[in-house]
Specification:
The chain is an all-alpha fold and 408 residues long. The chain has helices at residues 2-7, 11-18, 21-34, 39-63, 67-73, 78-111, 129-144, 147-171, 176-181, 192-200, 205-218, 225-251, 262-266, 269-307, 316-334, 340-365, 368-371, 378-403, and strands at residues 119-122, 125-128.
Length: 408
């Protein structure tokens, strides 16, 4: 058993990263608005995520480089390489700065089910002390802990978060017949946007960079590929079960509307009493805290990979990168600033990056000169084409939300 635990790697970090406050909101709204009808979409998103993350991990192990290092070292014109680096930087670095404030705020809203943090007034400015404390705690862990300790802390938080959401879903007594019917695909004009949102909140570009980097550091030999597959497959599958549990819980939410993360927990009080409110509050806090740790970690790995710098957690380049992401996230969250322009830039860049990185990822995995015997088999190449088409749909959806195209 001890050997198995030691072999399992950074997969739980991927689950911790995609189950953030945004995922909690999207899944809750899906259950609130459509009942169990979109459980199949969560299942589809998990399948796509496992496939893409396995490819990313396999590339990291087979080449000994993460995705940022591969982009930097590839043989191409400086213009093409520069465009790639700029796009990745905009989507992941600027994006994680923008979304970090949401992670911190989500964690604080979960904690406020138990305790209301005071708000400081300084020179006419309001400071959310809860966001400040949570942000400083996350920065402290990133600054002083190594990968192994960060991994263990996140696993502990993910287990606690999973228990909160799963226990709440089961205790509410859902109709299992209706749940099974939810895995039959149903698509119409009303639920299309929610379907795309459910897939988009799970298939996250920065997780591909994160896992490739952590996998190549965890497993130094191609003989460990089977352990990597178990690691990412099991982690993402369990993360998907948690997302489904959140959707199920959303069906029981008694709020008139759900406009913020606080309503996720408080809406259960009429049907489940204080226990439901406290369990969901803890789950939301854990989701926000885990994402507030993994977002700066992923962005720092991308920055150092693209620039060819040392990627150990306590190296100066990594620490400065943590400070950059967390610093801006803290400023936005503590002062209640919604970085609309940064979020818009991030949405545009992510909309372009997701299909691009999917195509590039699959292309690299098909290259025998890099992958050797570990290149994509034919059946996976066929499935990959379908995934690329879907990522284009997600990309168009991300762009349409920014430019108000109202395509779906």
């Amino acid at each position: 058993m001890k050997n198995i635990i030691e072999k399992i790697g950074p997969g739980p970090l991927v689950a911790a990263a995609f189950i953030g406050p945004g995922t909690v909101m999207v899944c809750t709204l899906a259950g609130f608005n459509f009942g169990y009808d979109l459980l199949w979409a969560v299942g589809l998103s998990i399948l796509i995520t496992v496939i893409l993350q396995e490819i990313a991990g396999r590339i990291g192990i087979a080449t000994g480089k993460d995705l940022g290092e591969l982009i930097r070292s590839q043989e191409s014109t400086w213009i093409f390489k520069g465009i790639q680096i700029l796009l990745v930087f905009a989507a992941i670095v600027i994006g994680n700065i923008a979304y970090e404030s949401g992670n911190l705020t989500g964690a604080r809203l979960g904690l406020e089910v138990f305790y209301t943090f005071p708000e400081w007034k300084i020179a006419g400015l309001s400071i959310e002390t809860g966001n400040l404390i949570i942000g400083l705690l996350a920065l402290f862990l990133l600054w002083f802990a190594n990968y192994h300790l960060i991994e263990r802390i996140l696993i502990f938080l993910v287990i606690g978060m999973s228990f909160s959401f799963l226990y709440t879903a089961l205790a509410l007594g859902p109709n299992w017949g209706e749940i099974f019917e939810g895995f039959i695909p149903k698509i119409n004009s009303e639920n299309t946007a929610s379907i795309v949102a459910l897939i988009g909140t799970t298939v996250v570009p920065y997780n591909l960079f994160l896992y490739a980097s952590l996998a190549k550091n965890k497993w130094k030999s191609s003989s460990s590929l089977s352990w990597m597959r178990w690691d990412i497959g099991l982690s993402v599958f369990l993360g998907g079960i948690v997302s489904m549990a959140i959707l199920v819980v959303g069906n029981f939410n008694q709020s008139e509307s759900i406009s913020n993360a606080a309503a996720v927990a408080k809406g259960l009080e009429p049907v489940f009493g204080n226990a439901g409110k406290y369990l969901m509050g803890f789950g939301l806090m854990a989701a926000g805290l885990t994402s507030s740790i993994t977002a700066p970690l992923a962005a720092a790995l991308v920055i150092c990979g693209l620039l060819g710098k040392d990627q150990s957690t306590q190296s100066p380049p990594m620490r400065w990168s943590f400070l950059l992401i967390m610093g801006f996230g803290l400023i936005f969250a503590s002062f209640g600033i919604r970085p609309v322009q940064l979020i818009t830039i991030a949405q545009i860049a992510n909309g372009v990056l997701l299909p691009f990185i999917s195509i590039w990822l699959i292309w690299v995995a098909n290259q025998k000169k890099w992958m050797g015997i570990h290149q994509n088999p034919k059946w996976l190449q066929i499935i990959s084409i379908l995934i690329v088409l879907l990522t284009f749909l997600l990309g168009i959806r991300a762009l349409s939300s920014v430019f108000n195209w109202n395509l779906f």
